[in-house]
TrEMBL record:
One of its GO terms (molecular function) is integrin binding. GO terms for biological process: cell-cell adhesion; monoatomic ion transport; regulation of monoatomic ion transport. Residues 1-25 form the signal peptide. GO terms for cellular component: membrane. Keywords: Cell adhesion, Disulfide bond, Glycoprotein, Immunoglobulin domain, Ion transport, Membrane, Repeat, Signal, Transmembrane, Transmembrane helix, Transport. It holds the Pfam family ATP1G1_PLM_MAT8. It comes from Oncorhynchus tshawytscha (Chinook salmon). It is found in: Membrane. The keyword Disulfide bond applies. InterPro entries: ICAM_N, ICAM_VCAM, ICAM_VCAM_N, Ig-like_dom, Ig-like_dom_sf, Ig-like_fold, Ig_C1-set, Ion-transport_regulator_FXYD. The keyword Transcription does not apply. It is a single-pass type I membrane protein. Residues 113-210 form the Ig-like domain. This is FXYD domain-containing ion transport regulator. The gene is HAVCR2.
Protein backbone atom coordinates (compact mmCIF):
# COMPACT_ATOMS: atom_id res chain seq x y z
CA UNK A 1 0.00 0.00 0.00
CA UNK A 2 1.25 3.51 -0.79
CA UNK A 3 2.80 5.24 2.25
CA UNK A 4 0.60 8.34 1.92
CA UNK A 5 -2.62 6.27 1.77
CA UNK A 6 -1.48 4.21 4.75
CA UNK A 7 -0.83 7.36 6.82
CA UNK A 8 -4.23 8.74 5.87
CA UNK A 9 -6.02 5.61 7.17
CA UNK A 10 -4.08 5.80 10.41
CA UNK A 11 -5.07 9.45 10.87
CA UNK A 12 -8.77 8.62 10.32
CA UNK A 13 -8.67 5.75 12.82
CA UNK A 14 -6.99 7.95 15.44
CA UNK A 15 -9.64 10.66 14.96
CA UNK A 16 -12.52 8.20 15.45
CA UNK A 17 -11.03 6.83 18.68
CA UNK A 18 -10.33 10.21 20.27
CA UNK A 19 -12.52 11.19 23.29
CA UNK A 20 -15.56 13.14 22.18
CA UNK A 21 -15.46 11.75 18.64
CA UNK A 22 -19.00 11.43 17.13
CA UNK A 23 -20.70 8.05 17.54
CA UNK A 24 -24.05 6.65 16.52
CA UNK A 25 -24.72 4.62 19.66
CA UNK A 26 -28.27 4.91 21.03
CA UNK A 27 -28.96 6.17 24.53
CA UNK A 28 -27.91 3.32 26.89
CA UNK A 29 -31.23 3.02 28.72
CA UNK A 30 -33.98 0.40 28.74
CA UNK A 31 -37.67 1.18 29.26
CA UNK A 32 -39.90 -1.43 30.85
CA UNK A 33 -42.44 -1.67 29.37
CA UNK A 34 -41.03 -0.17 26.14
CA UNK A 35 -44.50 1.05 25.08
CA UNK A 36 -47.56 2.03 27.10
CA UNK A 37 -51.19 1.53 26.08
CA UNK A 38 -53.48 2.78 28.82
CA UNK A 39 -57.17 3.61 29.17
CA UNK A 40 -57.99 7.24 29.87
CA UNK A 41 -57.86 7.86 33.63
CA UNK A 42 -56.01 4.64 34.54
CA UNK A 43 -52.66 4.45 36.31
CA UNK A 44 -49.29 3.87 34.62
CA UNK A 45 -45.82 2.93 35.84
CA UNK A 46 -42.65 2.61 33.72
CA UNK A 47 -39.11 1.79 34.85
CA UNK A 48 -36.07 3.32 33.12
CA UNK A 49 -32.80 1.44 33.68
CA UNK A 50 -29.22 1.96 32.49
CA UNK A 51 -26.30 -0.46 32.53
CA UNK A 52 -23.82 2.43 32.84
CA UNK A 53 -22.86 4.49 35.89
CA UNK A 54 -24.17 7.95 34.98
CA UNK A 55 -23.78 11.14 36.93
CA UNK A 56 -27.56 11.18 37.14
CA UNK A 57 -30.85 10.31 35.42
CA UNK A 58 -34.52 11.26 35.54
CA UNK A 59 -37.85 11.64 33.71
CA UNK A 60 -38.85 14.72 31.72
CA UNK A 61 -42.64 14.70 31.47
CA UNK A 62 -45.61 17.04 32.04
CA UNK A 63 -47.11 14.83 34.80
CA UNK A 64 -45.12 12.86 37.35
CA UNK A 65 -41.73 14.11 36.18
CA UNK A 66 -38.60 13.13 38.14
CA UNK A 67 -35.71 15.55 38.46
CA UNK A 68 -32.06 14.55 38.14
CA UNK A 69 -31.25 11.67 40.49
CA UNK A 70 -27.58 11.01 41.25
CA UNK A 71 -25.87 7.69 42.01
CA UNK A 72 -28.75 5.60 40.65
CA UNK A 73 -29.12 3.34 37.61
CA UNK A 74 -32.93 3.32 37.42
CA UNK A 75 -35.85 5.73 37.91
CA UNK A 76 -39.57 4.91 37.83
CA UNK A 77 -42.22 7.17 36.32
CA UNK A 78 -45.62 6.68 37.98
CA UNK A 79 -48.95 8.45 37.44
CA UNK A 80 -52.10 7.50 39.35
CA UNK A 81 -54.54 8.74 36.69
CA UNK A 82 -53.29 9.54 33.19
CA UNK A 83 -55.41 12.16 31.42
CA UNK A 84 -52.97 14.00 29.13
CA UNK A 85 -53.76 13.07 25.50
CA UNK A 86 -50.52 14.52 24.11
CA UNK A 87 -48.10 13.33 26.79
CA UNK A 88 -44.56 12.38 25.66
CA UNK A 89 -42.44 11.08 28.56
CA UNK A 90 -38.63 11.11 28.17
CA UNK A 91 -36.13 9.25 30.31
CA UNK A 92 -32.73 10.99 30.32
CA UNK A 93 -29.26 10.22 31.64
CA UNK A 94 -26.15 12.35 32.16
CA UNK A 95 -23.14 10.14 31.41
CA UNK A 96 -19.83 10.51 33.28
CA UNK A 97 -18.25 11.64 30.01
CA UNK A 98 -20.45 13.02 27.27
CA UNK A 99 -23.66 14.93 26.76
CA UNK A 100 -27.15 14.14 28.05
CA UNK A 101 -29.20 11.63 26.06
CA UNK A 102 -32.91 10.80 26.17
CA UNK A 103 -35.25 7.94 25.28
CA UNK A 104 -38.89 8.71 24.43
CA UNK A 105 -41.64 6.43 25.79
CA UNK A 106 -44.41 5.83 23.22
CA UNK A 107 -47.81 6.30 24.89
CA UNK A 108 -51.25 5.45 23.51
CA UNK A 109 -54.08 6.80 25.64
CA UNK A 110 -57.43 5.38 24.55
CA UNK A 111 -61.13 5.77 25.26
CA UNK A 112 -63.96 3.50 24.15
CA UNK A 113 -67.04 5.18 22.59
CA UNK A 114 -69.93 6.46 24.68
CA UNK A 115 -72.44 5.20 22.12
CA UNK A 116 -72.79 3.71 18.63
CA UNK A 117 -75.95 4.20 16.56
CA UNK A 118 -77.12 3.48 13.01
CA UNK A 119 -79.62 5.37 10.85
CA UNK A 120 -80.67 5.76 7.19
CA UNK A 121 -79.05 8.70 5.41
CA UNK A 122 -81.32 11.00 3.34
CA UNK A 123 -84.24 8.58 3.07
CA UNK A 124 -86.99 6.94 5.11
CA UNK A 125 -89.34 4.02 4.71
CA UNK A 126 -88.70 0.82 2.75
CA UNK A 127 -85.98 0.32 0.16
CA UNK A 128 -86.53 -0.64 -3.46
CA UNK A 129 -84.34 -3.19 -5.22
CA UNK A 130 -81.89 -1.71 -7.73
CA UNK A 131 -81.71 1.69 -6.04
CA UNK A 132 -78.70 3.02 -4.11
CA UNK A 133 -79.04 3.88 -0.43
CA UNK A 134 -76.73 4.92 2.39
CA UNK A 135 -76.63 4.07 6.08
CA UNK A 136 -74.67 6.07 8.63
CA UNK A 137 -72.96 4.82 11.77
CA UNK A 138 -72.40 7.50 14.43
CA UNK A 139 -69.68 6.87 17.02
CA UNK A 140 -69.59 9.25 19.97
CA UNK A 141 -66.47 10.33 21.90
CA UNK A 142 -63.76 7.84 20.88
CA UNK A 143 -59.93 8.01 20.80
CA UNK A 144 -57.54 7.59 19.12
CA UNK A 145 -58.99 7.57 15.61
CA UNK A 146 -56.06 5.77 13.97
CA UNK A 147 -56.92 2.67 16.04
CA UNK A 148 -60.65 2.72 15.27
CA UNK A 149 -62.16 -0.13 13.26
CA UNK A 150 -65.80 0.01 12.12
CA UNK A 151 -67.50 -3.18 10.95
CA UNK A 152 -70.81 -3.31 9.11
CA UNK A 153 -73.07 -6.36 9.42
CA UNK A 154 -75.98 -7.61 7.37
CA UNK A 155 -77.56 -10.15 9.66
CA UNK A 156 -74.55 -12.05 11.04
CA UNK A 157 -72.40 -11.47 7.95
CA UNK A 158 -69.63 -8.84 7.92
CA UNK A 159 -70.11 -6.88 4.68
CA UNK A 160 -67.58 -4.07 5.14
CA UNK A 161 -64.70 -3.04 7.42
CA UNK A 162 -63.45 0.54 7.64
CA UNK A 163 -60.31 2.03 9.25
CA UNK A 164 -59.22 5.65 9.59
CA UNK A 165 -55.89 7.27 8.75
CA UNK A 166 -56.14 10.11 11.24
CA UNK A 167 -53.54 11.09 13.84
CA UNK A 168 -56.03 12.87 16.12
CA UNK A 169 -55.35 11.72 19.68
CA UNK A 170 -58.15 13.43 21.61
CA UNK A 171 -61.72 12.01 21.70
CA UNK A 172 -63.94 12.99 18.78
CA UNK A 173 -67.30 12.08 17.25
CA UNK A 174 -66.90 10.02 14.08
CA UNK A 175 -69.29 8.86 11.35
CA UNK A 176 -68.94 5.95 8.95
CA UNK A 177 -71.09 5.60 5.83
CA UNK A 178 -72.18 2.41 4.07
CA UNK A 179 -73.45 2.56 0.47
CA UNK A 180 -75.64 -0.36 -0.57
CA UNK A 181 -77.86 -1.55 -3.40
CA UNK A 182 -80.22 -4.50 -3.09
CA UNK A 183 -80.16 -6.57 -6.27
CA UNK A 184 -83.28 -8.59 -5.56
CA UNK A 185 -86.42 -8.68 -3.41
CA UNK A 186 -85.24 -9.56 0.10
CA UNK A 187 -88.15 -8.79 2.40
CA UNK A 188 -86.93 -7.67 5.82
CA UNK A 189 -83.16 -7.21 6.32
CA UNK A 190 -81.25 -6.37 9.51
CA UNK A 191 -78.21 -4.07 9.54
CA UNK A 192 -75.94 -2.96 12.38
CA UNK A 193 -72.52 -1.40 12.85
CA UNK A 194 -69.81 -2.06 15.41
CA UNK A 195 -66.94 0.13 16.69
CA UNK A 196 -63.74 -1.38 18.08
CA UNK A 197 -60.27 -0.12 19.05
CA UNK A 198 -57.46 -2.26 17.62
CA UNK A 199 -54.51 -1.46 19.89
CA UNK A 200 -52.15 -4.20 18.73
CA UNK A 201 -51.78 -7.97 19.19
CA UNK A 202 -50.18 -7.81 22.64
CA UNK A 203 -52.15 -4.87 24.02
CA UNK A 204 -55.52 -4.57 25.81
CA UNK A 205 -58.52 -5.55 23.71
CA UNK A 206 -61.42 -3.23 24.62
CA UNK A 207 -64.85 -4.74 24.07
CA UNK A 208 -66.41 -3.74 20.77
CA UNK A 209 -69.57 -1.65 21.03
CA UNK A 210 -72.43 -2.42 18.64
CA UNK A 211 -75.40 -0.35 17.54
CA UNK A 212 -78.96 -1.53 17.90
CA UNK A 213 -80.16 -3.40 14.79
CA UNK A 214 -81.82 -1.42 12.01
CA UNK A 215 -84.55 -3.42 10.26
CA UNK A 216 -85.12 -2.47 6.63
CA UNK A 217 -87.86 -3.76 4.32
CA UNK A 218 -86.79 -4.30 0.71
CA UNK A 219 -89.43 -4.39 -2.04
CA UNK A 220 -89.17 -5.23 -5.69
CA UNK A 221 -89.12 -2.22 -8.04
CA UNK A 222 -92.82 -2.74 -8.95
CA UNK A 223 -93.95 -2.41 -5.33
CA UNK A 224 -94.92 0.90 -3.74
CA UNK A 225 -94.83 2.11 -0.17
CA UNK A 226 -98.50 1.02 0.15
CA UNK A 227 -97.64 -2.57 -0.70
CA UNK A 228 -98.47 -5.10 2.06
CA UNK A 229 -95.50 -5.83 4.32
CA UNK A 230 -93.04 -8.53 3.33
CA UNK A 231 -94.36 -10.83 6.05
CA UNK A 232 -97.99 -10.57 4.84
CA UNK A 233 -97.24 -10.69 1.11
CA UNK A 234 -98.67 -13.97 -0.23
CA UNK A 235 -99.66 -15.41 -3.59
CA UNK A 236 -103.08 -13.77 -3.23
CA UNK A 237 -101.38 -10.37 -3.07
CA UNK A 238 -99.56 -10.84 -6.39
CA UNK A 239 -102.04 -8.43 -8.03
CA UNK A 240 -100.06 -5.56 -6.40
CA UNK A 241 -97.20 -6.34 -8.72
CA UNK A 242 -99.29 -6.43 -11.91
CA UNK A 243 -99.59 -3.32 -14.15
CA UNK A 244 -102.92 -1.51 -13.95
CA UNK A 245 -104.93 -1.90 -17.24
CA UNK A 246 -106.77 1.43 -17.45
CA UNK A 247 -108.47 0.67 -20.84
CA UNK A 248 -109.94 -2.56 -19.53
CA UNK A 249 -111.39 -1.00 -16.40
CA UNK A 250 -112.69 2.06 -18.32
CA UNK A 251 -114.65 -0.09 -20.79
CA UNK A 252 -115.92 -2.24 -17.95
CA UNK A 253 -117.25 0.77 -16.03
CA UNK A 254 -118.85 2.27 -19.16
CA UNK A 255 -120.50 -1.05 -19.99
CA UNK A 256 -121.94 -1.44 -16.51
CA UNK A 257 -123.26 2.13 -16.63
CA UNK A 258 -125.01 1.53 -19.97
CA UNK A 259 -126.54 -1.72 -18.75
CA UNK A 260 -127.91 0.00 -15.67
CA UNK A 261 -129.38 2.80 -17.80
CA UNK A 262 -131.15 0.36 -20.14
CA UNK A 263 -132.50 -1.56 -17.16
CA UNK A 264 -134.03 1.57 -15.66
CA UNK A 265 -135.54 2.59 -19.05
CA UNK A 266 -137.07 -0.85 -19.34
CA UNK A 267 -138.75 -0.55 -15.98
CA UNK A 268 -140.12 2.88 -16.90
CA UNK A 269 -141.62 1.55 -20.18
CA UNK A 270 -143.34 -1.34 -18.39
CA UNK A 271 -144.72 1.09 -15.83
CA UNK A 272 -146.21 3.33 -18.55
CA UNK A 273 -148.07 0.42 -20.12
Amino acid sequence: MDTKIQLSWIAICLFLTLPGAPTHASCPVELNPPRVVVRYGDSVSVNCTTSTEPEGMGWEVTFGGIGLQGNVNFVTWTVGSLMDWTIEPKCYINPQNGSQCTEILPVILYKTPDSVSISPLSHSGPMIEGKEYQLQCDIQNIAPLQNLVVRWYKGNETIETQTFNDSTKKPVNMSSTLTLTHRSYEGEVEYRCEAELDLGPEEPKPTALSSKPLNVTVYSHTNKSTTPTAKSLTTADARWDEPFNYDYYFLRVVGLSMAATLFILGIMVISCE
